[in-house]
């Protein structure tokens, strides 16, 4: 009978391209992966890896086995989810990835509630940009990811993932208090054409979004400074070095020298959780989504249409 952990090791090598990368994902040593693969070769009577320069490549036999391993591992996950659902208890481990604002604005309260309500659940949290975390959920590195997209630029949803809305997060413009438009009740982005801007780092989803959003209103981006953290961006705004667009979720205290002005054409991002279809029945997934929704701070919409009664609001936001 084929050993499950050896199949998992082979599948990880095929997915990540090398023995060392598979070892990193599986949190074991390179030697441990090599030993698992050697045992699997003896178990199957087939050569599975061949030297390819300084690395390795899968043989035809390995490619055939990987295709079966993918289905087997998926069925195992479904079986685990069904068992947890049958038991009805929130137990086990849940690896969660979230973007920085969600970690600051949602996760502390959600994790505290989960620890109090479900002491047998262990949540492991990691910070990841949404463009990276969603593929990692698809591949099984994480059980859930908290991600975001903008109302003017939806994030593509990989096949095989489910999602549940957590909230809608409105964005405002942060201006130096000396800016001529700092005293306005609202402002349109077109009115800021030619101004210098402060953005998240160039490898983030927010930087790409800012560039495309400004170009959509015929304002060629003039990004002089990049900083990932909102607190740092606000410090740069306070110094008079540019403007920034900042969502309300997880925003830190606004320092002196900064004026926050709402946009007349509102921009908002939808924050939601994603998980694999095979894990949808896990009580831990449902409990974590519930905790995240309860952690949304006052003043941030929950993403469910107004006028829906409380019970139906929860149902309407459950899965889309």
Summarize the structure.
By secondary structure, this protein is an alpha/beta fold. The protein is built from eleven helices and ten strands. The protein has a six-stranded mixed beta sheet. The chain has a two-stranded antiparallel ribbon with strand order 1-2.
Tell me what the structure shows.
The chain contains eleven helices and ten strands. The protein is an alpha/beta fold. Among the domains are: 4-85, Arc Repressor Mutant, subunit A, CATH 1.10.10; 169-269, Periplasmic binding protein-like II (D-Maltodextrin-Binding Protein, domain 2, 3-Layer(aba) Sandwich). The strands form three sheets. It has a six-stranded mixed sheet with strand order 4-3-5-10-6-9. A two-stranded antiparallel ribbon has the order 1-2. Strands 7-8 form a two-stranded parallel ribbon. Strand 7 (197-199), helix 8 (205-216) and strand 8 form a beta-alpha-beta unit. The radius of gyration is 23 Å and the shape is elongated. The two termini are 40 Å apart. Residues 303-320 have low confidence and may be disordered. Pfam families: HTH_1 (PF00126), LysR_substrate (PF03466). This is LysR family transcriptional regulator. Residues 309-320 have a biased composition (Basic and acidic residues).
């Amino acid at each position: 009978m084929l050993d499950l952990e050896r199949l998992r090791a082979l599948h990880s090598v095929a997915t990540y391209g090398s023995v060392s990368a598979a070892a990193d994902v599986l949190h074991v040593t390179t030697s441990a992966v090599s030993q698992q693969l050697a045992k699997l070769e003896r178990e199957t009577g087939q050569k599975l890896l061949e030297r390819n320069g300084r690395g390795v490549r899968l043989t035809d036999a390995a490619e055939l086995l990987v295709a079966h391993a993918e289905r087997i591992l998926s069925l195992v996950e479904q079986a685990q989810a069904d068992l947890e659902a049958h038991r009805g208890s929130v137990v086990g481990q849940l690896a969660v990835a979230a973007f920085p604002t969600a970690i600051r604005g949602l996760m502390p309260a959600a994790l505290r509630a989960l620890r109090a309500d479900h002491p047998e659940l262990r949540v492991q949290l990691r910070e990841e940009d949404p463009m990276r975390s969603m593929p990692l959920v698809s591949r099984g590195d994480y059980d859930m990811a908290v991600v975001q997209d903008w109302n003017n630029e939806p994030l593509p949803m990989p096949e095989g993932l489910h999602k549940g809305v957590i909230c809608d997060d409105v964005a405002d413009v942060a201006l130096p208090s000396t800016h001529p438009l700092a005293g306005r009740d609202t402002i349109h982005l077109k009115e800021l054409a030619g101004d210098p801007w402060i953005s998240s780092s160039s490898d983030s989803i927010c930087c790409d979004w800012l560039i495309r959003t400004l170009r959509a209103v015929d304002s060629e981006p003039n990004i002089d400074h990049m900083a990932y953290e909102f607190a740092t961006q606000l410090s740069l705004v306070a110094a008079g070095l540019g403007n920034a667009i900042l969502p309300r979720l997880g925003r830190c205290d606004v320092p002196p020298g900064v004026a926050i002005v709402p946009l007349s054409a509102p921009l908002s991002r939808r924050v939601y959780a994603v998980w694999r279809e095979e894990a949808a029945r896990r009580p831990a997934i449902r409990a974590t989504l519930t905790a995240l929704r309860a952690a949304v701070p006052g003043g941030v919409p929950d993403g469910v249409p107004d006028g829906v009664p409380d019970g139906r609001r929860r149902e309407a936001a459950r899965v889309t």
